Amino acid sequence: QLNPIYKKDYMNITNLCDAIEKVLLSGFKGDVNISIGKPIPFSEVVETAKKVVGKDPFIYWVPEDDYMKDHIIDNSKFKSIVPDWKETVTLEQGMRIVLDKIKKGEMTTHQ
User: Fold this and answer.
1) Helix ranges, 12-90 (H)
2) Cβ 39 vs Cβ 101: under 8 Å
């Protein structure tokens, strides 16, 4: 069962695209790990989803494996390439955007 304290660095696709653009525009050549640098526990993701949806989300628990451990990447190279980069869409904002698209029929929960 997924331990709610395991941390991951969740990143909205808008933030990822912006970060990739900034790295490309910097002229940097090579590999770079891109992340927000703010790992959060899964329990916080669930609490944010509860707040956005207005009810307890259904959580499908899967058997624990290596994916269910902390996954925090070293983004120091990224931060040195674009030191002023900041996320523009928070976890909660990203969830609200997706929920709004689902309500408008622009996205399904099976995509």
Assistant:
1) 13-26, 42-53, 76-81
2) no
